[in-house]
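Let us practice reading a record.
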Amino acid sequence: FNSDKVRATLKSLGALNGQMLPLMIFELSRLLESNPRFTSFYYQEKIYFYDKVNIGVAIDFGEGLKVAVIKDANRLMPIDIYKTLMHYSMKYMKNKLTIEEVSEGTVTITDLSGDNILNFQPLINQNQTIIFGFGGNSCLPGHPMSITGVFDHRVLSGRDVATFLTELKDKILSYESQNFSNLK
């Protein structure tokens, strides 16, 4: 999907420093809350459900991959998610992320859109059912983005994931021309 109109909305509102990731995490977290199988895992012939939406965000600025976890992401507004991401980024750069800050993820995302990678396939983390890959390419017209879901077929079906991804995309695109007070 093209993200240029959503980015224009963010810019015109002066919201989230123009970044898409906090908005995408915000909408993702709400969908995860209403789709509990996405925050579960399969182990020894059983499906176990988490009671939280803790979104792990893969960070790698050249000092090794770390997955910082935004706890109870579904209870946060986009600006709170943005501030948490900035906080974790600074701690990552200083090698100061604590074990508590990289633990208890129930689902993970990785975002390579800043590197102009439109499509890729991330790997599912242990004790999770799905990982989301956010891609994008600012060099192409419309600044296209992609959302990939790599998932455990023992828990989710292709139809489940397709429906979820379509709904997530539609929620993100709903920001194209509307004024949203929750972005600031």
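A brief commentary: The beta strands are 40-43, 46-49, 55-59, 66-70, 107-111, 130-136, 145-151.
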